[in-house]
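HTH-type transcriptional regulator BetI, pasting as requested.
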Amino acid sequence: MSQVEGDVTQPKTARGQKTREALLRASEKVFGEKGYYTASISEITQEADVAMGTFYLYFKDKEDVFRALVAHMLQLVRTHLRKHVAAATSQMEAEQLGLKAFLSFVSRHKNLYRIVLDSYSVDESIYRGYFQVFADLYKHRLDDAVAQGELAPGDSEVRAWCLIGISNFLGMQYALWEKPASMDKVVEAAHDLITHGLVAR
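Structure tokens follow.
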């Protein structure tokens, strides 16, 4: 089992699935607004409008539901990015479309992204595992683009982490902290850097 996933046992009934989803939504709100260490299970169950004992039918403890939320975020982001880069005809176009889609996603799911960032202080393996999934996928895509002659040869692993860093910090600055006048201009500026670097042209 991944360090990100926690206990991913799914309920066997529709009612059970609905209750688990309600607990996840409540946890997203409570953790996102208060942070992991301030949030409590009682606040989560109150937000979900379920009994305290019901929580333990679906999650072992506070960390377990937290891990489940990070895994949920991972799944949502991957699905969102796949959908929005599917039309790309090159790796560079995929970079631009993917960055735009990612920033849009974070803008609409601020609590979930705060939870991912908070995971570093909860258990570094959760945080690292989340980003490692993206780094591995990125590396393979970059290797393929190099093999097809789209990109110049280089260390795909280092490049993957650089690109993740760009997305991550742009998400923090322009989706969580500040609302830019134009997100498209943020994407264009970042894409120009990715495409051309810092060398004068």
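Note for the archive: The first helix runs from residue 14 to 34.
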